[in-house]
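[audit] Reproducing an earlier prediction to check determinism. Same input, same settings, fresh worker. If the tokens differ from the archived copy the diff job will pick it up downstream; this log only records the rerun itself.
[audit] input (134 residues):
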Amino acid sequence: MSGEHMRIGEVATRTELSLRTIRHYEETGLVIPSARSQGGFRLYTESDVARLMVIRRMKPLGFSLDEMRDLLEVTDRLDSGEELSGDEHEALLERVHAYERAAAEQMEKLRVQLARAEEFTAALRARLTRDPAP
């Protein structure tokens, strides 16, 4: 991982999130930019971008900001390089597993919604083909 710092515009481009959304995640403490430039601009690292990508993936699955914060805390703890007791390590992994199950469940619901949307769109196209505009 390089020590490169990015300004918010570059982060927005990389994550495909709006500046407003990124600032909102900052205000809620989900992503705290690691540094500031001499001009006072917030600067982000690859690690900050990775956190934003986790949030970006969780949001459409209906996870709350608190759940996002919880998962980020868990993964921070697992990735900290600190020596964890067997019990703590197991408890953290169980929390990750719970998010994985919730995400898989949500994905199934979205697949059903998508299939219904595809059927509806196909029905409309068939209707237009059957009954073309004058």
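[audit] rerun output stored. Observation attached for the diff report: The first strand starts at residue 6 and ends at 7.
[audit] end
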